[in-house]
Amino acid sequence: MVPRHPFPPGAERIGPPHLKADPEGFVDTFHPCRLDRISGTVTVTGPPPGVVSVGFYRFVLRELEDLVRRADGGAFVTALPDALAGHRLAGISGSGGDIRATLAGLGINPLVADAFGAA
Fold this sequence. Notes:
Layout: E1 33-36, E2 41-44, E3 51-54, E4 57-60, H1 61-71, E5 76-82, E6 86-92, H2 98-105, H3 110-114
Antiparallel strand pairs: 1-2, 3-4, 5-6
């Protein structure tokens, strides 16, 4: 998972996003990993900071928070650890089920609306 050059080659000269290799040829992807020194394997144990993985869906937590606040200024959403899905979303709002309808009307992923419980 470690490239010998940035993606695509020359990307570091044209601006982000890019993966720039250090002098030894390694790239920091910011994914947390676990090293098994006996087998020599590296296991990716989670998403980069600020990214929430719910199953195969990935969200930038800051963007989720902004979307939810736009739908309801008093609402909050967070990500909680989940053994099967990686994370699960949980939300709270003073407007009850109204925020679910608002988020659905905005075309937001149903996982976000479902974070606010049953209507």
